[in-house]
Amino acid sequence: xxxxxxxxxxxxxxxxxxxxxxxxxxxxxxxxxxxxxxxxxxxxxxxxxxxxxxxxxxxxxxxxxxxxxxxxxxxxxxxxxxxxxxxxxxxxxxxxxxxxxxxxxxxxxxxxxxxxxxxxxxxxxxxxxxxxxxxxxxxxxxxxxxxxxxxxxxxxxxxxxxxxxxxxxxxxxxxxxxxxxxxxxxxxxxxxxxxxxxxxxxxxxxxxxxxxxxxxxxxxxxxxxxxxxxxxxxxxxxxxxxxxxxxxxxxxxxxxxxxxxxxxxxxxxxxxxxxxxxxxxxxxxxxxxxxxxxxxxxxxxxxxxxxxxxxxxxxxxxxxxxxxxxxxxxxxxxxxxxxxxxxxxxxxxxxxxxxxxxxxxxxxxxxxxxxxxxxxxxxxxxxxxxxxxxxxxxxxxxxxxxxxxxxxxxxxxxxxxxxxxxxxxxxxxxxxxxxxxxxxxxxxxxxxxxxxxxxxxxxxxxxxxxxxxxxxxxxxxxxxxxxxxxxxxxxxxxxxxxx
Length: 499
Fold this sequence. Notes:
single chain, alpha/beta, Alpha-D-Glucose-1,6-Bisphosphate, Chain A, domain 3, TATA-Binding Protein, five-stranded mixed β-sheet, 42% helix, globular
């Protein structure tokens, strides 16, 4: 490490006075103009992480479903996983350090994590289509370069594509080819094999109508379109040519405003095909109660609830032969254990019973369509489309499998969100005293109701979720719980507001 070079480049990416940020489930996220120093420092951290694990790591510049004026950054671990929790703490320390502390903190991280500074470092970089992303990516590159790391800038890619590329690189391409073409080929080939086995194969065209949220998905689906079979026609909406990113569209808009129907789980089909495997669905408290009841009572699939955040869902899903996880805002995938995958691939080749062999072959292709490194909207879409084709279901029939309970999301501004502490996967409030008791009383007033509160991971607000038998009751319950939070947490600022 060259202290003078570090000092020189750090001065080009100064930290705003008084700004404190926390590396959360989605990395760092805030207004784009406040992130230049964070990006530079995450470039530094990526080099240290790469040297610590002696593998390629990734840095993705994105704020996902946040407004266009926001941005963010997240690091990708060697097998496409989220950053290890210990390194989340290092990321927070580095992002909040004053200029004169940088060298000291880097040295401390190297000591704690046994980082050999003489090792090579390799970092893959990707970014979304936000106007701020290109400049912020350059700040990441500056950080990588200062510590002597090597990088490959993939430019505009989806977050799941970067996770895929990192995983392929570190598995010597056992997972797939470490190129965008490899990503398109793997998913489209397996998808094509699946729909060939559908009852209506070759009889009619299939139309995929996709809300691209005016973001990166439109560009990448356009690139992927030539890889699809000719009977599959892609129609892109909200492609970014007319409106702002995520404006009145996208998965999070659907979740919060409940305009179009929500996407349902694809667990039912996998449960039927993989009957001999240990399977479970992992949800968060935000999952609609109807989906949980359908999974447990109709499909007889075990359901586990974990804290909000993809990393918690992903880790829990890894405990099963087949772990399906899905958040209400659209993040989700299916994980297959190595043993389960080996068993499925063996059955697809060697099973003597024709029906069982065909079922195993279908599941084998499903494994290749699914992006197991992280939730991937393109991958998930193809999985859903293949299942509908195989089962001969229309979207309308699929949507009618069960009906979501009406729900409402609100937020309350408070002086310090840490006054709210939770337990039981964030479904019960531990502090302040009396809050959970008050929520319990309010919930009893309404049919089929539940409600919970949790502190935001990124801003000083408390988020409130409520469900009930009617929209009117869900709205009323959410408002009453919000008032309880507002008073018991001694909130300062605005009264409860819709998200």
